């Protein structure tokens, strides 16, 4: 009985899968926050290289992966697919549970799948420096890694509460040569404005995005790189689902349900989009996005136009949102604290083609604890949401006495998140259920877009 299902390096995907041609209906336009008119390529050139802009709007179903990117992918791709037999035994379930493990990358998560091509395209365009934001630090460390490989400078605005909670993520970024700045900071107008209003602000991804975009827009040698949400990031992550499909075929299996954690949408998109292509072709497969109850974008947000950042500098997009000035609690799953959702994921959810579920963090850490005891891998707090949902699906299969094949993405390891596990083991982990009235208050300030 095989536990690890591996692919040779020659099987690294040669193309990224672009779901846009298979989307239900046309995409809503992205809006320039200054003109309130649809964004043009010229609007985006101050912060993105043309190759990325072209990918963002491409209608081609398959986008070639440059050889230089595939060569670096070889350091960890194809990533392993595991059959979680020990977890199945612990649950006593008839379900088969598989997990695609992205924690084998140098940065310990799925994020380098997009960081490497973004650094490559910026280097090709003659850019010398990249600015970005990060929550828990997976994206920041991934971009720092990518910049070190292509000889680029890197500045990372890290959400202040995560900077405190996850000091070794900061160390990892600095080891790869990045300049890490706790956000909100005194280095940008956006940061100074927030601190003037709330000197003790914990920060948020929306604020950190504002600082990074302002930084990039103010320097000709600097571009902005984003680790989630946008179409090109979701595109780059589809290597995950493509490999998983091939590995499951080697195992003679196919999932009934595909599960991934969902903050801005990159991990879920990368895992689920290749399977949604099968669904569009007639396959019966469910895709489940899992988010924190404290930042319930898909489950409690509204589908509307909103800014991508707190300072209203980033483009306005149609997405599920909790409001651009939503201030999330300081939960340990820092990568899932974004106020909005990928427009592609949002449209799929609005059309009823994907499901969404939220969990409190104690339930997720309980699942991660069982997983670590059964499978030996300590999940990242973000990944624990997918673990929780996979366990619940397996328990339902047991209660119904039905066989079921479950696939989830273990998006990264938690070896730099021991502070969170210390809090869980000592009973100090608190649950946060974001109040409905605070969500309503934030949503009252959505932009008025009239097209």
Automatic annotation (TrEMBL):
Q: Please tell me which top-level EC class this enzyme sits in.
A: lyase
Query: Record's InterPro entries?
Result: Trp_synth_b-like, Trp_synth_b_CS, Trp_synth_beta, Trp_synth_beta/beta-like, TrpB-like_PALP, TrpB-like_PALP_sf
Q: Which PANTHER family match?
A: TRYPTOPHAN SYNTHASE, TRYPTOPHAN SYNTHASE-RELATED
PROSITE patterns in UniProt: TRP_SYNTHASE_BETA
Give all residue intervals belonging to the Tryptophan synthase beta chain-like PALP domain: 75-412
Record's protein name: Tryptophan synthase beta chain
**Record's keyword annotation contains Amino-acid biosynthesis:** yes
Q: Which GO terms describe its cellular component?
A: cytoplasm
Q: Which Pfam families match?
A: PALP (PF00291)
CDD domains associated with the record: Trp-synth_B (cd06446)
Q: Which GO terms describe its molecular function?
A: L-serine hydro-lyase (adding indole, L-tryptophan-forming) activity; pyridoxal phosphate binding; tryptophan synthase activity
For this chain, the family text in UniProt reads:
Belongs to the TrpB family.
Q: Which coenzyme or cofactor does it need? A: pyridoxal 5'-phosphate
Organism lineage? Bacteria, Pseudomonadati, Thermodesulfobacteriota, Desulfuromonadia, Geobacterales
Q: State whether keyword Lyase applies.
A: yes
Q: Which residues carry this modification: N6-(pyridoxal phosphate)lysine?
A: 111
Q: What does this protein do?
A: The beta subunit is responsible for the synthesis of L-tryptophan from indole and L-serine.
* Record key words, sorted: Amino-acid biosynthesis, Aromatic amino acid biosynthesis, Lyase, Pyridoxal phosphate, Tryptophan biosynthesis
* EC number(s) reported in the record: 4.2.1.20
Origin organism is: Geobacter hydrogenophilus
Quaternary structure, per UniProt, is: Tetramer of two alpha and two beta chains.
Reactions this protein catalyses: (1S,2R)-1-C-(indol-3-yl)glycerol 3-phosphate + L-serine = D-glyceraldehyde 3-phosphate + L-tryptophan + H2O
The pathway noted for it is: Amino-acid biosynthesis; L-tryptophan biosynthesis; L-tryptophan from chorismate: step 5/5
């Amino acid at each position: 009985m095989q536990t690890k299902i591996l692919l040779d390096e020659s099987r690294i995907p040669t193309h990224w899968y672009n779901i846009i041609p298979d989307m239900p209906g046309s995409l809503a336009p992205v809006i320039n926050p200054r003109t309130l008119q649809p964004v043009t390529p010229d609007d985006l050139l101050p912060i993105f290289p043309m190759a990325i802009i072209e990918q963002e709007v491409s209608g081609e179903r398959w986008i070639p992966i440059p050889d230089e990117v595939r060569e670096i992918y070889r350091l960890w791709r194809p990533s392993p697919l595991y059959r979680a037999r020990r977890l199945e035994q612990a649950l006593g379930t008839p379900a088969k549970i598989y997990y695609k493990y992205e924690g084998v990358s140098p940065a310990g998560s799925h994020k380098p799948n997009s960081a490497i091509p973004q650094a490559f395209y910026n280097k090709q365009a003659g850019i010398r420096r990249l600015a970005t934001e990060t929550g828990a630090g997976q994206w920041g460390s991934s971009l720092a890694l990518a910049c070190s490989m292509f000889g680029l400078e890197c500045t990372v605005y890290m959400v202040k509460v995560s900077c405190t909670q996850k000091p070794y993520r900061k160390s990892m970024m600095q080891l790869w040569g990045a300049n890490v700045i706790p956000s909100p900071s005194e280095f940008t107008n956006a940061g100074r404005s927030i601190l003037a209003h709330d000197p003790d602000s914990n920060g948020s991804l929306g604020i950190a995005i504002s600082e990074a975009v302002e930084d990039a827009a103010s320097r000709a040698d600097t571009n902005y790189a984003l680790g989630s949400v946008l179409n090109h990031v979701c595109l780059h992550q589809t290597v995950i689902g493509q490999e998983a499909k091939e590995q499951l075929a080697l195992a003679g299996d196919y999932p009934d349900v595909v599960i991934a954690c969902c903050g801005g949408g990159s991990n879920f998109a990368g895992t689920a989009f290749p399977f949604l292509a099968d669904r569009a072709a007639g396959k019966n497969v469910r895709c489940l996005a899992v988010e924190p109850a404290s930042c319930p974008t898909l489950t409690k947000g509204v589908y509307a136009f909103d800014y991508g950042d707190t300072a209203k500098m980033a483009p306005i997009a149609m997405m599920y949102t909790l409001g651009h000035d939503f201030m999330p609690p300081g939960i340990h799953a820092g990568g899932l604290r974004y106020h909005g959702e990928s427009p592609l994921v949002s449209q799929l959810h609005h059309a009823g083609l994907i499901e969404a579920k939220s969990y409190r963090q104690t339930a997720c850490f309980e699942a991660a604890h069982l997983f670590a005891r059964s499978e030996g891998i300590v999940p990242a707090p973000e990944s624990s949401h997918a673990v929780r949902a996979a366990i619940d699906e397996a328990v339902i299969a047991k209660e119904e006495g039905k066989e079921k094949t479950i696939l989830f993405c273990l998006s990264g390891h938690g070896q730099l998140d021991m502070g969170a596990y210390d809090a869980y083991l000592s009973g100090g982990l608190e649950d946060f259920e974001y109040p409905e009235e605070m969500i309503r208050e934030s949503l009252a300030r959505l932009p008025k877009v009239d097209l």
